[in-house]
Structures are given as C-alpha cells and as structure tokens.
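Q: What would this chain look like folded?
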Amino acid sequence: MSDAERYERGMVVRREVLSDAHVDRANESITEFTGDFQDFITRTAWGDIWSRPELDRRSRSVAVLTAMIALGHHDEFEMHVRAARRNGLTVAEIKEVILQAGLYCGVPAANTAFKLAERVLRDLGDVR
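A: My prediction, written as structure tokens:
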C-alpha cells in the first residue's frame, strides 16, 4: 500500500473515530511546522494501527484510555473518551476502564480520569 493510500485509509478511520468536526479543526491548524507530524499520525496511527483487523475499535479504545490514564495525557484522554463513546463503549464500561486503571496505574490517576471523563460525558449529555 502506498503512503497516499495509507493516508486516505487513515483519514477515513480518524474521521469515524474522532468525528469530522475534530479532524477538520485539527487540519485547519496544520502549519508548515506541524504538517509532517499530522501526515505521520494519519498514515501510521490511523492508517496502519487503528486499521488492523485483529482488535475492534471498542478494544482499541479500552487500550488507549488506559494508556492515557497511565501516562497522564489528559487532553488525549478527553479526546479518547469521546472516541470511546463513538466506538460503542457505554458510560458504565468507561467507568470500569477507569476503575481498572486505578488499580494498576494509581488512585490519583484514576481520580483525575474520573473528573475529566465526567466532564466529557456531561458535555455529551451522557451523565448529569
């Protein structure tokens, strides 16, 4: 598969997982400095990894949420809570992911994740 084909496949998956609005905002902010990185993540993260058939998107979302909690990547965590909902995870399943991560990643990390996830889920209208 060519780089152009991987990019196109990646853009389709990226839009399905993150939403057209999110990807459009990201693309509008591309500069000469950041363009190569945006091309790289579209081809590699979305066109290669997220496109592999061995894990479904729900499973990938569980893995990504856990990694973002463990590493303290709060902005990415919030983005991927939205993506997890788009990928079919329920609010209860997201809660269980955070509880599980709390056991292995630490209570402070889970505490922050609960706060961030609740804010996102409230914005989505999924919790009060």
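Residues 57-123 form a domain with the AhpD-like fold (CATH 1.20.1290.10).
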